[in-house]
Structure formats: C-alpha cells, structure tokens
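Subject: Molecular chaperone

B.,
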Amino acid sequence: MKKIIYALGLTIMLLTGSVFATEQKIAVVNVMYILQNMPERETVSKTLNSEFESRAKTLQSQEKKAQEAAQRLQKEGLTLSAGDKNKLKDIIASFEEKAKAFSQDYHKRENEEVNKLLGHIQQAVSTLVKQEHYTLVLKAEAAFYVNDTIDITEKVLEQVKK
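Prediction pasted inline below.
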C-alpha cells in the first residue's frame, strides 16, 4: 500500500513539474483606461445625454420650485397653516422622489451601455489571447505592481478601435 501511495505521489510530482516548466505568458490590461479612451465612449455619453435631456430640464425647473418651497417653509414655517405646510412638504417630497427615480434610471442605462463596451473589450482581449498565446490576462486594477513589458492595454485599445 505504501508503495502505491509513493508511486502515485511521484507520478503527480513529475506531471505537475512538466506543467510548470512550460513557458507562461502573462499580460495585464487596464480596463478603465480603455473604457475612457474608446471612441464609442463619447457616442454613449452623447446618447445618454440626449435620452435624458428633457427629463433633466423638467427636473431642474421642479428643483427651483422645491427650493422655493423649502425656503418659504423655513422662513414662514411658524406662521403657515397646516394645509400650506403640507403643500410645501409635498412639493419637496415630489421633487426628491423624481430626482431619485431620474438618478436610478440614468445609472441603469449607463450601466447597460458600459456593459456593452466591456463586452467589446472582452472580445478584443480574447482575440489578442488567441493571436499572441497568453496563458493569463489580469486586470491592472487588481495588481499592486505591473511591469510595462506585460501591459497590453494599448494593444487591446487598438483592437477595440478596429
């Protein structure tokens, strides 16, 4: 029994030794840099701005009304009737609710668009991995130190631009 375990252990060591003896090609990619410098990023930004422009303008006018209501409530709060106070509080609450909904909708759409861009980056990395035979590609954001010789960020950016 001991001989079998010994032989099995020796076989495992020999097999794993040959795996580690092969050349490992490691690369690092700065995804945030690519996202900021992609040509599509500008298009996405313009699309989102135009998509939410009318809601933003409406919200800005409501913000002025809410600010005026808050100021009036602060200045005249002691002399206002309960009904007037409630109306002013409703104006403020309505604005806050709409502002929160706007922010959530905008961030949801922005995340959808960023995920599409990340998909393009992933495809570019996959293409480079196949072309240049990398065994491991890491995000630069996850590393404490990166030697410039293994940074393929610019190559990925060029691939994304194709």
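The chain has a mean pLDDT of 86.

T.
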